[in-house]
Design a protein that fits this description.
TIM Barrel; 8-stranded parallel barrel; about 15% strand; globular
Length: about 280
């Protein structure tokens, strides 16, 4: 079980993050991670957030790293910054194109072209444990499940030690990914990424982030209570908990919750899972 946060942009955001981490720490996550942007200011905020969590808690903290908008030397500098604050776990992902999802990827001058190259760089820079991304609903740029499997195998051969999926809504999508990669020799543990719906406005954003449409039956359940924010949250929690139960029954090695820097939804889902286990 692990939680993902994003680096806050304001003092109020720092306070919110601190409160969220404090509220979730008693749940004893195996690790938490902090997302990473391409610009220098975002990089600094990410390192600051990892430092905050590392110094104020006993939780293992993982930093993200992307290829977007950076030279190889800047990537090395970012890794040195992580090492300085005691972060030895890195999630290495290529990142979205600078023009945003749906635009063509362009390699930054003096930079890297993909996550496999980034994994090699991280492993060359020190004793880091490296995770990578995986796509149950296929990568949105190619829509090629077989290619996704081969790329994940390439990442393993470059030194990756585990994977975390992009968000998804169907357990069968996760199991299909695992089956494909195991068939070609990829043995990485694949942690399932889970993001509960807490507002109707998130549905379109989820589709953009995951590269897949939200299933029609799930959309119907949420739209049926669209006029009541509390009911939307409750239904979103139920949908996420149902997915987690199915994944756990099938032997998923871990659940990674995209918290959106809020503790309530994640804590409620975990309470549902505990209740289900006792039932």
């Amino acid at each position: 079980m692990s939680f993902e946060f994003f680096p806050p942009k304001t003092d109020a955001g720092v306070e919110q993050l601190h409160a969220t981490v404090s509220e979730l720490e008693p749940l004893a996550p195996d690790f938490v991670s902090v997302t990473y942007g391409a610009t220098g200011s975002s990089r600094e905020r990410t390192v600051a957030a990892t430092r905050l969590i590392s110094t104020d808690t006993s939780i293992t903290t993982m930093g993200h790293l992307t290829c977007v908008g950076q030279t190889t030397e800047q990537l090395r500098d970012a890794l040195a910054s992580y090492a300085e604050v005691g972060v030895r776990h890195i999630l290495a992902v290529r990142g979205d194109p600078e023009g945003g999802p749906g635009t063509a990827w362009q390699t930054y001058p003096g930079g890297l072209n993909n996550a496999t190259q980034l994994v090699r760089l991280v492993k060359e820079q020190g004793d880091f444990c490296v995770g990578v991304g995986a796509f149950p609903d296929t990568h949105p740029e190619h829509r090629d499940a077989a290619l996704d499997a081969r790329v994940l195998l390439d990442k393993q051969e470059a030194g990756a030690e585990f994977a975390i999926t992009q968000l998804f809504f169907r357990a069968e999508a996760y199991y299909g990914l695992v089956e494909r990669v195991r068939a070609i020799g990829c043995t990485l543990p694949i942690i399932a990424g889970v993001m509960p719906v807490t507002a109707i406005a998130q549905l379109e954003r989820f589709a953009m982030l995951s590269g897949a449409e939200v299933p029609a039956d799930i959309a119907r359940r949420l739209h049926a209570v669209a006029d009541d924010p509390a009911s939307v949250r409750a239904v979103g929690r139920e949908i996420a908990a149902e997915l987690c139960v199915e994944l756990l029954a099938g032997g998923v090695p871990g659940l990674h919750f995209f918290t959106q820097n809020r503790s309530r939804a994640t804590a409620e889902i975990l309470a549902c899972l505990r209740d289900h286990r006792r039932a």
